[in-house]
Every structure is written in structure tokens, then in C-alpha cells.
Amino acid sequence: MFGECIVKYIDILGRKGCNxxxxxxxxxxxxxxxxxxPFGVFLRLDYYAIRGKEYKLLIxxxxxxxxxxxxxxxxxxxxxxxxxxxxxxxxxxxDRGGECLSSMxxxxxxxxxxxxxxxxxxxxxxxxxxxxLFLGAVLYPDLIVQLVNKVGKSQMHMGMKRDDSSxx
Length: 168
Known about the structure:
With 168 residues, the protein is mostly helical.
């Protein structure tokens, strides 16, 4: 009962724009049972972090939470969840000021994903946002299709120059 009330309160805080407070209540609920997460905090926390522009908090949370909950598991990571695989790159992108990588840096970012030698997805947390976004597109291609359908091709062309969109 207590947890359900806190979940409802988190939703109310989010609707009122109190995202930082919603994050703190998410962390409170998660501390009660982080292994089972009976209240779905892992499905909420990234949403409030992005809304509240708490990019570093989200990145650090994803880096550290699995080693704290599952210290013996080397392969445990929140990046296997689609919401984190797409919101962490978004947080990294905004954290670096919204600047795009050069084509050479982009190539290196893709190479980093393709040549992941340790088979530990947490090693990608130090990779640029584009690497993680590429991994998300590879692991969850249906989400990319849904996103393109939702956004629409007209909005995708808005930020491009005339020359760049000729291939579409």
C-alpha cells in the first residue's frame, strides 16, 4: 500500500513539473527492493531525469546501479532495457551541449560498438551517444520504425539542408 501511494505521488509530481522531486521519490522506492523493483521504478526514473534535465544523474545512475545491485554479475546492465538504451544517448547528447560528432568520430563510434571485445555492455557507457543509439537501432529496430512513423518524414527534413535530404 505504501509503495502504491508513493507511485501515485510520483506521477502527480511529474504532472506538476517537479521532476527532481519525482526522481528522489523514485530512488526512495528503488532502495526498498532494488532487485525485484515491484513498483517499476526502472521504467520511470529515466523519464523524469530527461524531463528534469538531470543528464549527469541519469548517466551516473546507469553506470553504477547494476554494480551495486549485482556486484558479481559482469553482464548486468540497464542498457538491455530499451528505454535506457535510447534515453542514455539522449542524455549524453544534451550533456555535451547538443553538438554532433564529425564523420570520423561517428565512424569510430560505430566501430566501438561493432568491435566490443569484452562482451560487457557496461563498457559502452563510456562511448559517445551515437554508439549507444546505433546499438539501440540494431537491438530494437521495431522501435526505430515506430519512431519514424510517429515523427513523420516531414519533421525529419526540417533540420536538414536541401542537399542533405535529396536521398530521402
